[in-house]
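Need a sequence for this fold. Nothing fancy.
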């Protein structure tokens, strides 16, 4: 069920648990699928400070111009002062699941690495990069552009 935000004009807002299946919702299915895939991968190949992500919920906002922003917010207490964020880009609300997955993975990776000192997903010294390859959202090793795993299936290779 969407949350309405009376302070931001006309927008529709949703919150979803970060580390579990989202289930039935009226949010755009491509974006829901993307949140689920990225959420599944967050527990693998994560290096840096130890933080429990379970109190975090994804946030999704679509405004009256169909501008999409995503982020996360703490729903409970988080050890170590882990912060929330919200960012919007030029991602259409009706993007394919694969496009949305790459977008959400990229924003999440940037947020973790840039502000929380967490390298994710990382194999050694190099971050894997989210890329769209033949219509599939993939984690790619930038040394040689080698696909490692579909986003959402990182656990099978970790």
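Here you go.
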């Amino acid at each position: 069920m969407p949350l309405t935000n009376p302070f931001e004009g006309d927008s529709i807002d949703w919150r979803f648990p970060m580390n579990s299946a989202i289930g039935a919702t009226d949010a755009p299915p491509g974006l829901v699928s993307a949140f689920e895939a990225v959420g599944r991968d967050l527990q693998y190949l994560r290096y840096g400070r130890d933080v429990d992500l379970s109190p975090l919920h994804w946030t999704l906002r679509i405004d009256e111009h169909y501008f999409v922003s995503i982020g996360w917010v703490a729903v409970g207490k988080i050890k170590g002062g882990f912060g929330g964020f919200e960012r919007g880009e030029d991602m259409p609300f009706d993007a394919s699941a694969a496009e949305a997955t790459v977008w959400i993975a990229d924003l999440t990776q940037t947020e973790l690495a840039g502000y929380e000192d967490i390298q994710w997903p990382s194999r050694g010294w190099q971050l894997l990069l989210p890329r769209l390859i033949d219509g599939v959202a993939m984690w790619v090793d930038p040394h040689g552009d080698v696909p490692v795993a579909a986003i959402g299936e990182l656990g099978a290779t970790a």
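For context: The chain has one domain: 3-156.
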